[in-house]
Structures are given as structure tokens and as C-alpha cells.
Amino acid sequence: MSKKAKKEVVVVKELSQSELQKLAHSGTKEAIEKIEKYIKTEKDYEKRSYAEMALEECEMFFYQPKNEKEDEEFMLCELIRQREQSIDDMTMKIDGLEIRLEKSDLDGKVHAKVLAKHKNKKKDWEYNWMPDFVSFEENELKKIKEQIEYDEAWVAEAKKMITTARYKNMPTRHLGHFNFNFGGDSFDDEKDDCDCENNCDCDDVFKGMM
Q: What is the pTM of this model?
């Protein structure tokens, strides 16, 4: 006779603000895991929000580059994130192009039948469906697929260059805290969204926690 397995209940200890501050300032992998577990179980919105800020600060300390090599790899992580986002965007564009090509192909088939049935209107109606538009879309589709193939190969090689253990599985959301200032408009400068006037303190992300 089989015994019914007892469901194990994991109880996560509530963390006070001082405990969260201590964990945040330690900046260790263990501290990050402990705060993450607490966030998953905490129901109170304010306490959870405070813990999320503590997690961000802890990650700041943990992932901060400690030498020139790590600084380079940290930047490479952002380049990879950017390239992967571009791949996602292009994949969505491909979906749209393929749908338009399917519709255009069907449109062309109907167009051919219309002209066959109305020969006296062939000259007037022949340009109501443009095969050149189809060719343009097909060329665009080919270019995007080629770019995706290259970008995927680029990402694969770039990831091999990440040798710092803590950067291999770094959450991409962490990179969102930084403006890498690569000279383009690809990266958001959080201060552009600031509505403050003089004496702006928007850079004090963790104000009140110290």
C-alpha cells in the first residue's frame, strides 16, 4: 500500500528593511537568491517594492565590473542584448512581410481572372495589381533573413567571448539600468524622461535605503 506523499511547504522568513539593506550592500550571489525568494512570497505591495529596490542594488554591486576585462565583457553583454532584440524585431517584420506576400499572391490570382473575364478593360485595369510590389517585398524578405542569419552567428560567437561566470547568466533587465552611450539612439537615457526641474535627484535610485 503506497503512502501519500506529503507536500513540502517552503516557508520564507520575512526580511526587515535593515536586513534587506544588509543583503543589498553585500552584493553576493547568495544575497540575490535570498531576496528573490522573499519577493516571490511577499504579498504586501510596499514590502515587495522595497525588496525589489534592494535586489536592484544588490545586483549593482554583484555585476559591477572589477577590472578592464570584466568591463569589456559587461559591455559585450549589452551588445548581445541589443543584437538579440534586433533579431526579435526582424522576426516580427518577417511575419508581417510573409502575410502581405500571401495576400498579394492571392490578390494577383484574382486579378488575372478579372482581366481574363474583362478583356476590354485589360488596358485600364492591368496596373490595379503591381507585380513590382511583390518583387520588392520578396527582396526585402530575403535581406532580412540574411541579416538574421548573420546576427545569430554574431551572437553565438560573442557569447563564447563571455568568460566571466557571473556575466554568463546575467538577467538582461539589469543592463537596463545603464546608458552605455554608444553614440546612437538605440539606448534610452533615463534622464530624458525626467520631469524634475532644478536639483534633480533622479540618479539617487535607492534614495532612502541608505
A: 0.68
